[in-house]
Amino acid sequence: MKILKDKIVFISGASGGIGKACAELFAKSGAKLIISARTVEKVQEVANEIKEKYQTDVLALQLDVQDKKAVNELIDTLPLDWQKIDILVNNAGLARGMDKLHEGEPEDWEAMIDTNVKGLLYLTRKIVPRMLEHNVNGHVINIGSTAGIIAYPGGTVYCATKAAVKFISDGLRMDVVDTPIRVTNIQPGMVETNFSVVRFHGNQQKADNVYEGIEPLVAEDIADIVVYAASAPAHVQICEVTVTPTHQATGGIVHKEKK
């Protein structure tokens, strides 16, 4: 897509899943990429794959978005050629546990709040002023969830964090309404990535059970929507997209075929 050619796109949580799929599709569209993740080896592997496949520039960086100091230092020390960020994809996020609130682990709550909410805020706070400084038609794309619209049992804190993403997106859109910056919130339902493996603390069987009997979305489905929103003409702002598998109505209402 010509509109994305040579744009600089920053994607957090890009070592796999939706983040990696977004990186690949942006690269295919001619964009240059800054991709980050907590594990530098994994994100460097993604960068190497993309460079070889699409012959585009990719900068791979280690970053835990929960660490405000690390976020600030990383953005402040970007190489000169990478400072003019056009698009920010706040993708880093996670779910931990399926306990009832009164039985939950505070450590799980903190991981979700620090990543899904505070990490998104830290990156947005550092990058949006640079978009304004460089007078680019900037775009902030947040990966929310249907969990931010309707809660479901066992997901109280996760749902709260994704509701926060929705309202942060809405509020930021108001804050930058007098600028060229656009804000989009993508709210997927069931997407089969390593999401459920993380939620169940590495229990692959429990994770597999989540998607049994239904054809879930895949990471590439969400990447298609992200890149579509980013490639819309500058006067078009896609504010919010909610997407689910055909047999999912909400986080808690799913039809599964019996074996």
From TrEMBL:
Q: Which domain of life is it from?
A: Bacteria
Q: What keywords tag this UniProt record?
A: Oxidoreductase
Tell me the InterPro entries matching this sequence.
NAD(P)-bd_dom_sf (IPR036291), Sc_DH/Rdtase_CS (IPR020904), SDR_fam (IPR002347)
Q: Which CDD domains match?
A: SDR_c5
User: Which residue ranges traverse the bilayer?
Assistant: none
Q: Which GO terms describe its molecular function?
A: oxidoreductase activity, acting on the CH-OH group of donors, NAD or NADP as acceptor
Family, similarity comment:
Belongs to the short-chain dehydrogenases/reductases (SDR) family.
Q: What is this protein called?
A: NADP-dependent 3-hydroxy acid dehydrogenase YdfG
Lineage of origin: Bacteria, Bacillati, Bacillota, Negativicutes, Selenomonadales
